[in-house]
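TL;DR need structure tokens for one chain.
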Amino acid sequence: MQIEPTENQKRELLRLARKTISEGCTRGLPPEQIQEREDQPDVFLQKAASFVTLQKKGILRGCTGSTQAHRTLLDDIIHNAFASAFRDPRFPPVTENELPEIKVEISILTPQQRMEVADERDLLKQLRPGIDGLLIRNSQYSATFLPQVWKQLPNPRQFLAHLKNKAGMPPGIWPDDMECFRYQCVKFEERRG
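>> reply
TL;DR here they are.
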């Protein structure tokens, strides 16, 4: 089931994500439980997987998310906003001075669909550029790219090569136990620089 928030709900989710990051900068604490839970729309309380991506002047500044729905959409976005700002190991924690330059983007993922693939070549034939997010995993490697990564890597071969690299997988390797899952997402972002 795909969750599709209204435009007002999208703005509210972005506001709550930004509030979480702002309070993390000023208070230095992980997000507390939302006090006004009863006042939230039902769509916020459905279990859903999400990613929160932060950009600063158009450059990635943090991105963390969930690939499986294991908590409410609201809780998932709040936790991922905090993690993107303060726990993404690729970046130092966001500072209060950076907040005006940070743009928040939220992606709500559809449930994953397992792909039946024989090998890497078969996967490349099945990929739908610009549509599919992809999760690859086995006992040793795991990584995902959201559908919006196709904007930077429009060629399926490049897309997969970069995803394998992100997973720490050497080029030319395709483990026998590799599993592949596709998903789509509803993406929305703040209107700021």
